[in-house]
């Protein structure tokens, strides 16, 4: 329920940053963006997840007169966002279809009376004459278009309602607009600027590096067990997200984890809306829960302490992969992005693309996205460097020290001859016999296996039969994957059959040497703490606070206190304080309110509300 809240009356951006949010300094380009928007300029902001986009519009909304209108597709999260702002003393409200009429009226009245700093609305709402007339009755300080990549028609999150947002500019030409996204290939950026009529806006592009995330891509052999090993050995008791392609796989793995003592919940579009909302709310509120989900889950989830994101299937694009993995470690503490992938993934995705309803251009586009993802998986160079150069950012060091390739450099070997053997098998089947088969058949032929299918088609009479017995089946699968990743081979059709491409000839004629990743047993990755690299500016997150031994009980006591307050108020724990803030408090073990107020993340409102309780908890758990 809303109670009248006095305005914060902040004078400058820095004042808002220090007093309301409790942060000592702007991060990266935040300060420039905020000043630009306060001065009335339009902005297009590209920043990775966790980079700190929200402050870029929240602070100008506090400083400029009127209400900042935030357009966000994430209806289910608006309540939490508004709760978090209210805890900071910010007067925030939302309008969306989940409200009843009374709630709505109240928010509308607050807006018209000028009693809101921020108003969140869904894009479909903005299209209605009712909401547009309402907005005309109040003062708008700015429009913030969150998740702006939703306007990109070939993107993975396209929302038709976003296309109408160009009308903001026409209807309210004097109100500054700031569009924000974490998806930022140069093509997407241009599409956003054009479609939202933001071509005159100033562009702010942050470094996309997320140094605290350790990227790892492993071969998939027994995915359930591999996942369980990862969670048990490195993420016991942690909160994380496991992405699966299909609903069935989501259900299966959620049960599997639960049976193995790891609390997990399913999330996919096949569950009814109430179950989905309940599972999401539990994930946000409880510690140590694992969400097993399709990609329907996660956009805008700003839970800061997600410690791992695991993919059990190949993502459809590098953009999608980067966005999904980006949900890990928003608080800047070390986190893992782990992906298990195998040949079957490629075949399956190809099948989905070929069988999709889209036109030829759409399929070509999807195919290109898949190829880029494959290239990342099969890469023998630093994953981070690959990712960043994909996003047009070449200024990074060639090794990051915090990805599987840097930690355990894969051995490479000259795979040119095996590649030729494989391609000539496909060639013989295709050209001599007019047949197309999946990878399994070619591998059986090469390794000289007389399976029923081999004898039935008399493939044991081919000259290539048995010429590849020197490699194991797993190695052959690796050869196929790497040929696919390089575009020297393709899969097509319902059965995922292998076919030659325009580039196969280069390998067959010996014009190309192919260095391949050696298939190794699961590498044991060392854990380096994030944020330790020098170099690239615009750092996504502050380095984690290392907790001295003596502060651990204080941290645990604070966590317990936070849990009970969050429960009492019905909000996620991070709305009270983030883990990173609790750690900093524990490390400092303050005795006075003044001391507590110096901790990053402790603003004025939280100090007043929770300060004494925090000091009591610290005193109880502290030494002596
Ligand atoms: P994004 O929307 O870009 O994913 P958020 O706006 O949610 O990122 O910010 C990520 C985290 O970083 C949040 O916990 C936020 O409170 C914190 N944060 C943002 N800006 C600063 C800053 N200048 N100093 C300290 N913490 C910050
Ligand atoms: Zn690396």
Describe the structure.
The protein is α/β, with parallel strands linked by helices and about 625 residues long. It folds into four domains: about 15-205, P-loop containing nucleotide triphosphate hydrolases (Rossmann fold), CATH 3.40.50; about 215-410, P-loop containing nucleotide triphosphate hydrolases (Rossmann fold), CATH 3.40.50.300; about 410-520, Orthogonal Bundle (Arc Repressor Mutant, subunit A), CATH 1.10.10; about 550-620, DNA polymerase, domain 1. About 45% of the residues lie in helices and about 10% in strands. It has 27 helices and 17 strands. A seven-stranded parallel beta sheet has the order 3-4-2-5-6-1-7, sandwiched between helices. The chain is globular and about 85 Å long. The two termini are about 40 Å apart. The model is unreliable at about 520-545 (pLDDT under 50). The structure holds adenosine-5'-diphosphate and zinc ion. Zinc ion binds near residues 382, 384, 400 and 406. Adenosine-5'-diphosphate (ADP) binds next to helix 3.
CATH superfamily of the largest domain: P-loop containing nucleotide triphosphate hydrolases
Share of residues in strands: 5-15%
User: What is the C-alpha radius of gyration, as a whole number of Å?
Assistant: 27 Å
Instruction: Summarize model confidence as the mean pLDDT.
Output: 88
| Helix count from the secondary structure assignment | 27
Widest beta sheet: strand line-up: 3-4-2-5-6-1-7
- CATH structural class of the largest domain: Alpha Beta
Structure class: alpha/beta
Identify the overall geometry: globular
CATH architecture classification of the largest domain? 3-Layer(aba) Sandwich
Which ligands are bound?
adenosine-5'-diphosphate, zinc ion
How many strands?
A: 17
Please give the domain count. 4
Q: Major sheet, described briefly?
A: 7 strands, parallel
Q: What is the helix content?
A: 40-55%
Could you say what the CATH topology of the largest domain is called? Rossmann fold
Distance between the termini: 42 Å
The poorly predicted ranges are 522-544
């Amino acid at each position: 329920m809303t109670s009248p809240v006095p305005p914060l009356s902040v004078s400058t951006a820095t004042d808002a940053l220090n007093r309301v949010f409790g942060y000592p300094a702007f991060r990266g380009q935040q300060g420039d963006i905020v000043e630009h928007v306060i001065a009335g300029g339009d902005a297009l902001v590209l920043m990775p997840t966790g980079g700190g986009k929200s402050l870029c519009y929240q602070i100008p909304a506090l400083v400029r007169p009127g209400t900042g209108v935030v357009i966000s597709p994430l209806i289910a999260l608006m309540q939490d966002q508004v709760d978090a702002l209210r805890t900071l003393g910010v007067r925030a409200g939302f309008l969306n279809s989940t409200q009843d009429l009374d709630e709505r009226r109240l928010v509308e009245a607050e807006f018209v009376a000028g009693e809101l700093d921020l108003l969140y609305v869904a894009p479909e709402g903005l299209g209605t004459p009712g909401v547009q007339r309402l907005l005309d009755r109040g003062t708008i300080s700015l429009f913030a278009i969150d998740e702006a990549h939703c306007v990109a028609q070939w993107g993975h999150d396209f929302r038709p309602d976003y296309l109408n947002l160009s009308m903001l500019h026409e209807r309210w030409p004097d109100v500054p607009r700031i569009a924000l996204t974490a998806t930022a290939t140069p093509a997407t950026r241009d599409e956003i600027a054009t479609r939202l009529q933001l071509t005159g806006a100033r562009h702010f592009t942050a470094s996309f590096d997320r140094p605290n995330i350790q990227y790892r891509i492993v071969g998939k052999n027994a995915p359930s067990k591999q996942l369980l090993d990862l969670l048990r050995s490195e993420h016991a008791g942690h909160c994380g997200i496991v992405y699966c392609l299909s609903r069935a796989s989501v259900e299966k793995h959620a049960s599997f984890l639960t049976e193995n003592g790891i609390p997990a919940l399913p999330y996919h579009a096949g569950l009814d809306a109430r179950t989905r909302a309940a599972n999401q709310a539990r994930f946000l509120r409880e510690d140590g829960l694992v969400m097993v989900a399709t990609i329907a889950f996660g956009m805008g989830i700003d839970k800061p302490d997600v410690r791992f994101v695991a993919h059990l299937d190949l993502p459809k694009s590098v953009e999608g992969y980067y966005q999904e993995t980006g949900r890990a470690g928003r608080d800047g503490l070390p986190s893992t992005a782990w992906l298990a992938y195998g040949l079957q993934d490629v075949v399956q995705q190809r099948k989905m693309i070929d069988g999709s309803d889209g036109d030829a251009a759409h399929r070509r586009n999807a195919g290109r996205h898949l190829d880029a993802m494959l290239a990342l998986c099969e890469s023998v160079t630093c994953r981070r460097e690959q990712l960043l150069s994909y996003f047009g950012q070449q200024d990074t060091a060639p090794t990051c020290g915090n990805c599987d390739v840097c930690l355990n450099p894969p051995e490479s070997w000259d795979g040119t001859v095996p590649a030729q053997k494989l391609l000539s098998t496909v060639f013989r089947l295709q050209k001599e016999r007019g047949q197309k088969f999946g990878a399994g058949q070619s591998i059986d032929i090469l390794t000289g296996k007389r399976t029923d299918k081999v004898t039935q088609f008399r493939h044991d009479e081919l000259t290539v039969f048995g010429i590849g017995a020197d490699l194991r089946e797993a190695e052959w699968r690796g050869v196929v994957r790497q040929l696919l990743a390089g575009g020297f081979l393709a899969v097509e059709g319902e059965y995922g059959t292998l076919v030659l491409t325009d580039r196969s000839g280069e390998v067959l004629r010996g014009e190309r040497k192919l260095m391949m990743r050696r298939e190794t047993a699961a590498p044991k990755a060392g854990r380096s703490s994030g944020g330790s690299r020098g170099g690239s500016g615009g750092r996504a997150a502050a380095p984690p606070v290392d907790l001295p031994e003596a502060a651990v009980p204080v941290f645990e006591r604070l966590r317990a206190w936070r849990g009970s307050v969050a429960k009492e108020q019905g909000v996620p724990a991070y709305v009270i304080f983030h883990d990173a803030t609790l750690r900093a408090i524990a490390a400092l073990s303050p005795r006075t309110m003044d001391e507590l107020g110096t901790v990053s993340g402790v603003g004025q409102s939280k100090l007043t509300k929770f300060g004494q309780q925090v000091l009591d908890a610290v005193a109880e758990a502290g030494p002596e």
